[in-house]
Structures are given as structure tokens and as C-alpha cells.
């Protein structure tokens, strides 16, 4: 059986690999603080023609100092890439054995070697940058117009804000983009996976349960048409009534304030109030009709 922890790491990596291209402007601009005119993604495949088989590797245990790894290469002629090759061997062997690596090239040519033994400063390995998302203000990503950046805000710094309000604002932002249902569903699935890294998956799951209702009403053409043109006599009133009924159900869950629901539906609070009043009246009439029909 597959290790669930390993599977989880694979899921996180997969999401970040899928999202890396649209995230690149945010990484370079917002996190690294650089302005660039052009980026081009290169193949992630490393050359397979490199000879990565060292000539000789030993574990050496001296009497007075700590043991180390001794790596030896034999050369019959000068190789201009030798310094790069040795640097690559050193990193690979160091990662494999976790010990100090000492290296030596034994030259077998008839004349002394003139090979350079050090890398130029421009290509010498001097470390790497760590970008801690947990220290980045979540609004930097949440206020973006890119789905992938908005999703990334779940891993950022909430500062003094509580998790519930942040998660709610993330969902609101996703809807505010006017996204298609498939785009929103993909973003929610990514949120559900990444939120596990912050133990917020229960909260994200709770909010995601309301999303099908929200998406359905936001994408209902008749609802939007009704907003724009008003309630014209004989104009698909049945569909409008169904949309109002859905809106009323959302309000009755108690999870939305009037302001939040109005923002989600892209209408004023006055318009929302009118729609809810109509829906409530329709519900009372419908309930009264059902009661009268009972024997």
C-alpha cells in the first residue's frame, strides 16, 4: 500500500508544477522583487550523455580526524570541463554519503596538466534562496487576477486575521473573477490539497460545499438577465423564481452576511434585499398552496 504521506507530497509537487508558469510573474516580481521583460521555460530534463560514473570512490577513516569520502579520477589528457564535472561529482557524492568529500585527479599524460581546478566565480555554487510563503502577506496573492496565485494565498501569512475570514475571502475572490465552473472546481480541488499543509482542509471543505450553489446561481443566464432588465411581464418568471429560491437557501444557511452575499452575486444590497423578499413571499405562497391541497 502506498504511503499516504509520500502521496501527499506528490500531490503538492504536482499542483506546484502545474501552476508554475502562471505563478512565475508572482515569484519573480512579488517574491524576488525583480522586473523582467521576458521569460522562457526550459526543458527540465538534464543531459543524459554525462558520464556520471566516477573512477574510484573510497570511505577513508584516518586515526586523528573524521572519516571522509575520497573521490579519484584518472585523466590521460586535459579536459576543459573537468572542474565542472568534479563539482557535479562532489555534490552528488555529498548528498549520497553525507560526509566531507575530498577529490583528486591523477593525471597520466606525458606532460604536466594545465587544467583549471576551480570553477569561475560566475558559475561557482554559493547557495540558494529560500522563499518562505508562510511569511508572505496572503493578500499579495489573494488580490491577484490569476487563479493560481489566489490558490497560493492559502499557504501565506494570515497575520492577525482568523483563518475562517481568510478562507471566505479566497472563495469570494475566485468567484469575483467571473470564472467558469470548471476553473473554479479546479481551484477548489487545489485548495483542498494545499490546505492540508496548514491543517485548514476541514474549513476549506466546509466552504467548498456551498460552492456548487453559488456557481449555479452565478452562471444562471436568466438570473443575470433578470438583474439587468428587471422583472418584465411574462419573461421566464419560472426560471427567475428558481434562482431566487436558490438565493434564499444560501441566505438561510447563515454563512453569508448581506454584504458578502451581495458581493458574491454582484448586486447591490438593496437589489439583494428585494430578491430575498420576493423569494420569501413566493415560498409562503407555495407553502400555502401545498397546505390547502392536503386533504
Please provide a written account of the structure.
- By secondary structure, this protein is mostly helical.
- Helix content is 53%, strand content 7%.
- It is built from twelve helices and three strands.
- A three-stranded mixed beta sheet has the order 1-2-3, with helices on one face.
- Helix 10 packs across helix 12.
How many domains is the backbone divided into?
3
How many helices does DSSP assign? Answer: 12
* β-sheet strand percentage: 5-15%
What distance lies between the first and last C-alpha atoms, to the nearest angstrom? 59 Å
Average pLDDT reading: 79
Extended strand count: 3
Broad structural category:
mainly alpha
List segments where confidence is low: pLDDT < 50 over at least 5 consecutive residues. Answer: 1-6, 224-236
Summarize the biggest pleated sheet.
3 strands, mixed
**Can you write the helix and strand succession as a string?**
HEEHEHHHHHHHHHH
Could you give the order of strands across the largest sheet? 1-2-3
Overall 3D shape:
elongated
**Roughly how much helix do the residues carry, as a percent range?**
40-55%
Please compute the radius of gyration using only Cα atoms.
31 Å
Summarize the structure in short.
With 295 residues, the protein is mainly alpha-helical. The protein is built from twelve helices and three strands; from the N terminus they run αββαβαααααααααα. A three-stranded mixed sheet has the order 1-2-3, with helices on one face.
Label this structure with key terms.
3 domains, 295 residues, 53% helix, mainly alpha
Amino acid at each position: 500500500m502506498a504511503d499516504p504521506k509520500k502521496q501527499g507530497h506528490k500531490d503538492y509537487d504536482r499542483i506546484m508544477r502545474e501552476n508554475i508558469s502562471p505563478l512565475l510573474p508572482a515569484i519573480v516580481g512579488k517574491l524576488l522583487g525583480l522586473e523582467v521583460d521576458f521569460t522562457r521555460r526550459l526543458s527540465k530534463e538534464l543531459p543524459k550523455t554525462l558520464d556520471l560514473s566516477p573512477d574510484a570512490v573510497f570511505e577513508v577513516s584516518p586515526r586523528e580526524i573524521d572519516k571522509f569520502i575520497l573521490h579519484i579520477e584518472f585523466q590521460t589528457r586535459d579536459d576543459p570541463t573537468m572542474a565542472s564535472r568534479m563539482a557535479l561529482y562532489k555534490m552528488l557524492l555529498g548528498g549520497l554519503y553525507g560526509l566531507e568529500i575530498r577529490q583528486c585527479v591523477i593525471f597520466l599524460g606525458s606532460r604536466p596538466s594545465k587544467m583549471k581546478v576551480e570553477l569561475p566565480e560566475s558559475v561557482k555554487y554559493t547557495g540558494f534562496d529560500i522563499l518562505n510563503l508562510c511569511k508572505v502577506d496572503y493578500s499579495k496573492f489573494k488580490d491577484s487576477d490569476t487563479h493560481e496565485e489566489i490558490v497560493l494565498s492559502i499557504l501565506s501569512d494570515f497575520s492577525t486575521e482568523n483563518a475562517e475570514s481568510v478562507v471566505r475571502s479566497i472563495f469570494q475572490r475566485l468567484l469575483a473573477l467571473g470564472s467558469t465552473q470548471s476553473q473554479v472546481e479546479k481551484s477548489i480541488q487545489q485548495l483542498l490539497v494545499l490546505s492540508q499543509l496548514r491543517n485548514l482542509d476541514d474549513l476549506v471543505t466546509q466552504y467548498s460545499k456551498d460552492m456548487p450553489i453559488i456557481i449555479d446561481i452565478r452562471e444562471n443566464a436568466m438570473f443575470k438577465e433578470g438583474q439587468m432588465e428587471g422583472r418584465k411581464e411574462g419573461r421566464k418568471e419560472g426560471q427567475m423564481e428558481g434562482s431566487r429560491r436558490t438565493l434564499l437557501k444560501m441566505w438561510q444557511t447563515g454563512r453569508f452576511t448581506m454584504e458578502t452575499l451581495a458581493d458574491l452575486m454582484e448586486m447591490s444590497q438593496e437589489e439583494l434585499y428585494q430578491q430575498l423578499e420576493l423569494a420569501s413571499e413566493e415560498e409562503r405562497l407555495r407553502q400555502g398552496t401545498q397546505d390547502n391541497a392536503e386533504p
